[in-house]
Protein: DNA repair protein RadC
Organism: Limnobacter humi
Amino acid sequence: MTIQQWPEHERPRERLIQRGANTLSDAELLAIFLRTGLPGKSAVDLARDMIQAFGGLQNLHKVPLREWLQVKGLGQAKYAQLQACLEMARRCLSGELNDTQQRVNSPERFERFARAHIGLSTVEQFLVIALDSQLKVIQHRVLFSGTVNKTAVFPREVLKFALDCQASRVLVAHNHPSDCCNPSAADDKLTLDLCAALRLVDLELIDHLIVGKSCVFSYRQSSRNPF
């Protein structure tokens, strides 16, 4: 049975319009993107096959084209559409902070921005956001990239970036591709070193965030040293 033959109140697209995207399952959301299935297989069935084959919706961003093409019903056009959708999502999530008039005045806003920029990366990356005294964004940059489980971060480079931006406050974040956001001893030492280095020139470290595909850890919200 095709989706068009389903009762209207059960069709993913109609349910999305009536109740919101958050009410749909991963397979139903993906089915709306796919639009069509295969003979004898609905778009939702094809979406379930894809989620099983690729290990979850959260892994679609890193599926190489050669693996994508191995799934019957998928082609280069769909792959290009997916990459465009993912990039649009990243830009939408980060767009609010690209306007220098925006303030990073909530943990939720900082988390969304960090996830958009580094949360899905397959290697560790270290993001720095320079802020003025009113928490308005001056500039942001991924200063360091590493391997799947570590990256070398030099406090002097963070300090130089903040001073070049004439910042008053700094937010930092890095990702854990393993999707385990528990801070390591190295993360603790880095946070202490960064905080001490910034204080020497009267700059404040607002928070250090660790993000994964489905987890987050905030040093400040957890009251972890030095916060």
Summary: Helices lie at 12-19, 26-34, 43-54, 65-68, 76-98, 107-119, 155-164, 185-200. The mean pLDDT is 84. The chain has eight helices and five strands. The longest helix spans residues 76-98.
